[in-house]
Specification:
By secondary structure, this protein is an all-beta fold. Helix content is about 0%, strand content about 50%.
Length: about 120
């Protein structure tokens, strides 16, 4: 089972980026999927999650700016990030749970992790 992120980069404040998480060896359709991020010296924090039926949850810090979605046909997860701020600078990780059910933004809910993709927002 592999989780591979892409789409990170450098952008100015107010800009947008879209992160992509491609899955192999499993289907995203029947499990919780999530995006986390970790800034230097900080704990890894949950950003957004989406459950098997498409219900999404967001951290307060990104509500109204980030959108998590999935393309079942492509077995791919996305994170559209708009109105980016310098405090969004972090390494972003895609995470997959072993099962469906209630999702959360807690690290312990997820079993499979990607290597991360860097997002840098300059002021």
């Amino acid at each position: 089972l592999q989780v591979v992120e892409s789409g990170g980069g450098s952008v100015q404040a107010g800009g947008s980026l879209r992160l992509t998480c491609a899955g192999s060896g499993y289907t995203i359709n029947n499990r919780c999927m999530s995006w986390f991020r970790q800034a230097p010296g900080e704990e890894r924090e949950g950003v957004a999650s989406i459950d098997a039926d498409g219900t999404s949850t967001y951290a307060d810090s990104v509500k109204g700016r980030f959108t998590i979605s999935k393309d079942k046909g492509k077995n791919t997860l996305y994170l559209q990030m708009n109105s980016l701020k310098p405090e969004d600078t972090a390494k972003y990780y895609c995470a997959a749970a072993q099962s469906a059910g209630s999702c959360s933004l807690l690290r312990g809910r997820y079993t499979y992790w990607g290597q991360g993709t860097q997002v840098t927002v300059s002021s």
